[in-house]
């Protein structure tokens, strides 16, 4: 699209907006044209010098964090809120940043066991106000004794005790979400290590009680059948001792410390396979 007459691009020989203007007449650049060129270069140099002298917009927190809280908790919230190197242009942008920072702060508070929080996004004065979040974390909720439920049948007593011990959640400890989740993984590993290869966690239930300020996790594990070894067949030219492998009797429990592990067959036994070290 051509610009209106007198605007940039109307001069012959220039290309603008997808249209090409061809210079006609072969006019050479004289003193008048040279003067305009030198003037343009001088203006460009002045603008460049001003831009170079202007400091770059330094990265700063997306929102300031206000309120009394544990230093480690404050540091975690500041990390979650993050920084930005873009200035605020208007109040709408400031309000958006404050709201997003408040959501990030709430996620950290809940993950660290603070469920009775009070979080309020705030704005300063002016057309480009500074966003902030005022936080009152409240008390930290504590863990209640965890419960372990078995779906579709209980394992043997030794495995059941091992799974309960693997939870390793002390009643009265901080109700941190990461601790609750990792405890389930430890329990599954303990059961699987004792021959229940098909053990699978079911949806857990975590009750946050505001009356006594506790977090009560309930884990549900489906163990499946106890998997047993179905004999060993060794095919190797290496130094593996066949007599040592035969030390695991047919029908023994297939634990993670057994000489070799194979995929389980439909009858609940580990399928014999050729092993090449």
Task: Summarize, please.
The chain has helices at 31-53, 71-81, 91-111, 157-167, 177-193, 242-245, and strands spanning 15-16, 19-20, 60-61, 64-66, 83-84, 118-123, 131-136, 142-143, 147-151, 200-209, 214-222, 228-229, 269-270. With 277 residues, it is α/β, with parallel strands linked by helices.
Estimate the mean pLDDT confidence.
Answer: 76
CATH class of the largest domain: Alpha Beta
Give, in order, the helices and strands. EEHEEHEHEEEEHHEEEHE
CATH superfamily of the largest domain: membrane protein fhac
What is the 3D shape? elongated
Q: Give start-end ranges of low-pLDDT stretches.
A: 1-34, 36-41, 258-277
Looking at CATH, which topology of the largest domain would you report?
Ubiquitin-like (UB roll)
Q: Helix fraction? A: 25-40%
Number of domains: 3
Number of helices, counting only DSSP H or I runs of 4 residues or more: 6
Over the alpha carbons, how many angstroms does the gyration radius reach? 35 Å
Portion of residues in beta strands equals 15-25%
End-to-end Cα distance:
74 Å
Tell me how many strands there are: 13
Oligomerization status of the protein chains: single chain
Major pleated sheet: 4 strands, mixed
Structural class of the secondary structure composition?
A: alpha/beta
Which architecture of the largest domain would the CATH scheme give at its second level?
A: Roll
């Amino acid at each position: 699209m051509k610009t209106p007459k007198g605007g940039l691009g109307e001069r012959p020989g220039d290309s603008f907006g997808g249209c090409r203007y061809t210079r006609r007449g072969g006019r050479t650049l004289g003193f008048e044209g040279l003067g305009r060129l030198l003037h343009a270069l001088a203006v460009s140099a002045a603008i460049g010098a001003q831009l170079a002298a202007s400091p770059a917009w330094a990265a700063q927190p997306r929102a300031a964090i206000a309120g009394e809280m544990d230093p480690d908790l404050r540091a975690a919230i500041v990390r979650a809120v993050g920084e930005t190197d873009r200035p605020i242009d208007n109040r709408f942008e400031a309000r958006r940043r404050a709201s997003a920072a408040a959501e990030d702060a709430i996620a950290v508070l809940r993950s660290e066991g603070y469920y009775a929080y009070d979080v309020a996004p705030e704005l300063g004065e002016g057309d480009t106000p500074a966003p902030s979040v005022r936080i009152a974390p409240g008390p930290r909720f504590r863990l209640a004794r965890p419960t372990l439920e078995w779906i579709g049948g209980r394992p043997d007593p030794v495995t059941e005790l091992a799974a309960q011990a693997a939870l390793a959640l002390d009643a009265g400890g901080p109700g941190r979400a990461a601790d609750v989740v990792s405890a389930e993984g430890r329990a599954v590993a303990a059961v699987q290590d004792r021959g229940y290869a098909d053990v699978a966690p079911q949806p857990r239930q975590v009750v946050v009680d505001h009356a006594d300020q506790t977090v009560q996790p309930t884990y549900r594990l489906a163990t499946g059948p106890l998997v047993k070894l179905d004999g060993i067949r060794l095919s190797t030219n290496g130094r593996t001792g066949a007599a040592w492998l035969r030390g695991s009797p047919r029908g023994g429990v297939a634990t993670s410390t057994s000489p070799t592990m194979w995929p389980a067959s439909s009858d609940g036994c580990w399928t014999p396979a050729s092993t090449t070290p």
